[in-house]
């Protein structure tokens, strides 16, 4: 473990929380110190859920460590069962509590509770959140599922959606509708909105749809081995992937399948006149493995972008992402260090980033537009509106997600190009303010004051000053390459021993790098 400002994944007990919070009739008893009790913040504030997560903490403090903390865990277990009356409980320890080795599983087994107790062994110092969710769901399925007669009609289970997942709620709704159109019933969706009784019914389905491998693959593989249920390998995110998914289901069920594509707009819109200026845009893609793989295909095959780099933070998906990178002829970045990702983006200088909330912040710093396509995400990425990623409607949503940052960036660039116009110079203020200037200190000519700063700079010093005319000319360069032009010019000036960057320096640097 290491100290960091941002993290892509939490510890594995957060993954277990995601499963417990997604389900009904299940409770999580977590042996944890006072500082680890932040589940309410995650689920009620970020995801804006309408109920508190079903998690009970032992909440031991420093003074408790001098005595036996086992009784605290037993008390918490009994109180949770008495108060919430769950159908089953899962028990485990947080990363901090793991150090005192109280063995929550063994303690719970000695209590003689009348409901199933599912112990979790989650190695907090070697694995992370997605592993915790996958392992927790697997243990629940392995403990609670029971042999069943197959349903009369062809049916499937949808595996993988959890609480705090990226658009999981809407994905399930869209996928259920798509399967219904194909003549397939959904037997159980799990863990999202499933109860322990629903988990018992999983083997009644004819096959499983593995929607998110990060959080459902271990359970899908166990169900295939134990109950002879095949599972799908294609995640239906994007037009091509959705069509491949339908073909895969046809092969599993040995039935012809054809879906209604009347709502699908992405293929036409991405080829329309309004979108042709996006062709060839260089994009960098980073996030969880499932969404990165899906969006790499969408970017290249359905939007006409050029993928210049891909990567994922969850190491469980490293192998398929590396294979995909070889197919695309680019480097794969497998890391959970956002500073490494930032360095890769800065080096590649893409015109757009497809990433997580962290890449959105990186894009702001570098002046590169970013579309969020994967968790971890901000509260704004849990919209109240219907906004799936899977299926044909999901493809429409993704088109908007990818195109809007570029369109807004183009608008920003056009405003910059016309900076000297009477309507658009800095002193004019926002156009919707009717011409008032909220910026009285701005240079009305559209220039900048950067040339008046740091006048004590001398040749050979580490301080580089952009003169007003050079700064003004720099702003005419399109936003998506402006950062690279600035860095190249500053490198050129530093190599020449210059303290100031003039208009001539900017042109000389441009000619130098053009050669």
TrEMBL record:
[4Fe-4S] cluster binds at residue 36. This is Light-independent protochlorophyllide reductase subunit B. Protochlorophyllide reductase is composed of three subunits; BchL, BchN and BchB. Forms a heterotetramer of two BchB and two BchN subunits. GO terms for molecular function: 4 iron, 4 sulfur cluster binding; ATP binding; metal ion binding; oxidoreductase activity, acting on iron-sulfur proteins as donors; oxidoreductase activity, acting on the CH-CH group of donors, iron-sulfur protein as acceptor. It is an enzyme of class 1 (oxidoreductase). It catalyses: chlorophyllide a + oxidized 2[4Fe-4S]-[ferredoxin] + 2 ADP + 2 phosphate = protochlorophyllide a + reduced 2[4Fe-4S]-[ferredoxin] + 2 ATP + 2 H2O. It comes from the Bacteria. The gene is bchB. Binds 1 [4Fe-4S] cluster per heterodimer. The cluster is bound at the heterodimer interface by residues from both subunits. It comes from Cognatiyoonia koreensis. Its cofactor is [4Fe-4S] cluster.
């Amino acid at each position: 473990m290491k100290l960091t400002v941002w993290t892509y994944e939490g510890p594995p007990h957060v993954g277990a929380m995601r499963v417990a919070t997604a389900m009904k009739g299940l409770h999580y008893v977590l042996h944890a110190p006072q500082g680890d009790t932040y589940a309410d913040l995650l689920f009620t504030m970020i995801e804006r859920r309408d109920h508190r997560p079903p998690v009970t903490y032992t909440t031991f403090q420093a003074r408790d460590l001098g005595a036996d903390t086992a009784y605290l865990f037993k008390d918490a277990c009994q109180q949770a069962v008495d108060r919430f009356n769950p159908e089953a409980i899962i028990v485990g320890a947080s990363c901090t509590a793991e150090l005192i080795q109280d063995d929550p599983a063994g303690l719970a087994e000695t209590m003689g509770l009348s409901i199933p107790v599912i112990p979790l062994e989650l190695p907090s110092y070697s694995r992370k959140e997605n592993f915790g969710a996958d392992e927790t769901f697997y243990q629940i399925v392995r403990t609670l599922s029971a042999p069943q007669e197959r349903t009369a009609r062809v049916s499937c289970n949808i595996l993988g959606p959890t609480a705090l997942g990226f658009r999981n709620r809407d994905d399930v709704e869209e996928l259920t509708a798509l399967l219904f159109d194909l003549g397939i019933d959904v037997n159980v969706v799990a863990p999202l909105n499933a109860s322990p009784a629903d988990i018992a019914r999983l083997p009644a389905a004819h096959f499983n749809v593995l929607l998110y491998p990060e959080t459902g693959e271990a359970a899908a593989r166990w169900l295939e081995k134990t109950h002879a249920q095949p599972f799908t390998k294609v995640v239906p995110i994007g037009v091509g992937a959705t069509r491949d998914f339908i073909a895969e289901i046809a092969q599993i069920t040995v039935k012809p399948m054809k879906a209604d594509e009347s709502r699908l707009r992405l293929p036409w819109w991405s080829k329309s006149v309004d979108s042709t200026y996006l062709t060839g845009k260089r994009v960098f893609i980073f996030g969880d493995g499932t969404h990165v793989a899906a969006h790499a295909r969408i970017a290249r095959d359905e939007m006409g972008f050029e993928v210049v780099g891909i990567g994922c933070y969850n190491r469980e998906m490293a192998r398929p992402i590396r294979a995909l990178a070889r197919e695309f002829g680019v480097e794969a970045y497998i890391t959970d260090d956002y500073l490494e990702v930032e360095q890769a983006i800065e080096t590649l200088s893409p015109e757009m980033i497809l990433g997580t909330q962290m890449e959105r912040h990186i894009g702001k710093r570098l002046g590169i537009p970013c579309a969020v396509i994967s968790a971890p995400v901000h509260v704004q990425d849990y919209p109240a509106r219907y906004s799936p990623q899977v299926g044909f409607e999901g493809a429409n949503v993704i088109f908007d997600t990818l195109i809007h940052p570029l369109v807004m960036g183009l608008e920003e660039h056009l405003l910059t190009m016309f900076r000297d116009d009477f309507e658009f110079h800095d002193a004019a203020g926002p156009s919707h303010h009717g011409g008032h200037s909220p910026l009285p200190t701005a240079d009305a000519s559209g220039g900048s004051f950067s040339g008046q700063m740091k006048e004590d700079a001398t040749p050979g010093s580490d301080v580089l000053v952009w003169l007003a005319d050079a700064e003004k000319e720099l702003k005419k360069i399109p936003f998506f390459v402006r950062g690279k032009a600035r860095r190249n010019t500053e490198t050129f000036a530093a190599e020449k021993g210059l303290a100031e960057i003039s208009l001539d320096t900017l042109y000389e640097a441009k000619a130098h790098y053009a050669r």
